[in-house]
Design brief:
The complex is a heterodimer of chains A (about 130) and B (about 50).
Chain A (H helix, E strand, L loop, with lengths): L1 H5 L1 H6 L3 E6 L3 H11 L4 E4 L4 H5 L3 E2 L6 E2 L2 E5 L5 E6 L8 H9 L6 H25 L1
Parallel strand pairs in A: 1-2
Antiparallel strand pairs in A: 3-4, 5-6
Helix pairs in contact in A: 5-6
Chain B lengths: L22 E3 L5 E3 H7 L2 E5 L5
Antiparallel strand pairs in B: 1-2
Classes of the chains: A alpha+beta (about 130), B alpha+beta (about 50).
């Protein structure tokens, strides 16, 4: 959540919207949004219909919550990229970048916008790793 | 980001598949409709555990 928040401006400038789905009710989502300064929509699947339809419901965790995942959806609701998190692997903007680079870039605006998005994330990733070394 | 399909979850939308449509309220209780959103720009959906 925070990683995508920190990259929100670049992602949005590149032509993508962001939204996050949980089973939290709107009041709880609003608190989280304020606490973490989340600039994108937090969607409230309180009856679990969406995460059930998308086969992302983990019924054995906290009464039924989503398994964590990132899905990029394009025109016609076509899935452009997807990642299901595991205990040892969580997708971030850089991972999404790599996946979208290899995706079908059939949508004209994305042809124009994606390179700038990728370049921004590459620069950001290199800067972060340079700081760590 | 691979497209491995967990055997126990055969219905997770795959890459290049059409994702199921939905409409949900946001934190301000305003409706958010996936099909309408992607008409103007692609959307990155984060599925998360929720507030603890």
């Amino acid at each position: 959540m925070a990683d995508f928040r920190d990259h929100f401006d670049a992602i949005h400038a590149a032509g993508f919207d962001l939204a996050a789905v949980s089973v939290d009710p709107p009041r709880t989502a609003a608190l989280l949004q304020a606490e973490l300064y989340i600039p994108y929509d937090l969607l409230c699947d309180t009856d679990r219909a969406v995460i059930r339809a998308w086969d992302l419901l983990n019924e054995h965790d906290h009464g039924g919550i989503p398994i964590t995942a990132v899905v990029a959806v394009g025109p016609g609701r076509k899935v452009l990229a997807r990642s299901l998190d595991t205990m040892t692997r969580q997708v971030g903007p850089q991972d999404l970048l790599a996946a979208l680079e290899s995706a079908d870039l059939a949508h004209p605006p994305r042809r124009f916008l994606l390179p700038r998005f990728f370049e921004y994330l590459r620069i950001n990733w290199r800067a972060r790793h340079a700081e760590e070394q | 980001m691979g497209d491995d399909q967990p055997a126990e979850r055969p219905n997770i939308p795959r890459v290049r598949a059409v994702a199921p449509d939905f409409q949900l309220p946001n934190a301000s209780q305003q409706p958010w409709h996936l099909d309408e959103q992607v008409r103007t720009r692609p959307v990155i959906l984060l599925f998360y555990r929720g507030h603890w």
